[in-house]
Design a protein that fits this description.
261 residues; alpha+beta; Aminopeptidase; 8-stranded mixed beta sheet
Length: 261
């Protein structure tokens, strides 16, 4: 199957690398989604998915012709640890739903899901030019909610007491991030990265020019503000590309796992 135009070959971070799924990954899916804890965090039903359900889900949503899924690999070992995907991609309105499951419990809490989500958002907004990414998550999945917030998602609504789990009712939370939210979050990170080097450069330049200390503060502010920052190579400063019209508009069934970071 040829990759869809929007699909990268890989998206690399410092902890994880995202790649296209291969058929052999079904073995990991069978193990992950048979786990009661994954079911508790990710499914509307209280029980894990049956093997035949996992096979149908994998064939349609992971390696199918319309699949928008990426495998999450630990960068240092290339070990497959999870999966993330977009669904209901609406090219006309620039929106999609986001899903992620980190299936290997021994890497939970290490930031793999957070970085995978950041990579997917960077691609969605910085390369594809999408406008809005949304997701749904159960109220009790606090680890996932915290990771989503770190990536710029905000809570925009709740389906009150819509899930019965652990002996009580819980809300299902709707979250989203806009391109402007992503740009602000990523811009703040870039500012932190460049602030100290730029300030040191300005200090060195002013010292070299023997600028009087009494005038140095105002001159330095003007100098820093006029330093041209180079374009990055990660797509963050690239303009949006033409949105694709071959959107995946089908709605996910109850068999689809929800998010777990």
């Amino acid at each position: 199957m040829a990759p869809k135009p929007w699909f990268p070959e890989a998206l690399a971070g410092t902890k994880v690398v995202l790649r296209r799924h291969v058929p052999a990954n079904i073995d990991a899916f069978q193990r992950w989604y048979a786990d009661p804890e994954i079911a508790r965090l990710a499914r509307y039903q209280a029980t894990p998915m049956r093997p035949e359900e996992i096979e149908r889900f994998f064939a349609a949503r992971v390696v199918g012709s319309d699949a928008l899924a990426m495998a999450v690999h630990e960068k240092s070992t290339d070990r497959l640890v999870g999966t993330c995907a977009f669904s209901q991609l609406d090219g006309e309105n620039g929106s999609a739903l986001y899903h992620i499951t980190i299936g290997e419990a021994d890497v939970w809490g290490q930031g793999f899901g957070t970085e995978a989500t950041q990579l997917m958002l960077d691609h969605a907004f910085g390369t594809l030019g999408l406008h809005r990414i949304a997701l749904y998550v159960f109220e009790f999945n606090e680890r996932a909610i915290g990771a989503y917030k770190r990536c710029g998602f905000v809570v925009e609504g709740r389906s009150r007491e819509s899930i019965w789990r652990d002996g009580r009712w819980w809300d299902e939370m709707a979250m989203s991030v806009l391109e402007s939210d992503w740009r602000a979050t990523r811009g703040a990170a870039l500012d932190l990265d460049i602030a100290d080097p730029v300030e040191k450069l300005a200090d060195a330049f002013l010292a070299l020019c023997a600028v009087d200390l009494r005038d140095r503060r105002s001159v330095k502010v003007r100098l820093i503000s006029n330093i041209a920052l180079p374009a990055t190579d990660d797509g963050l400063r690239h303009g949006p590309i033409e949105k694709h019209d071959d959107a995946d508009h089908h709605r996910a069934s109850d068999e689809k796992p929800k998010e777990d970071l």
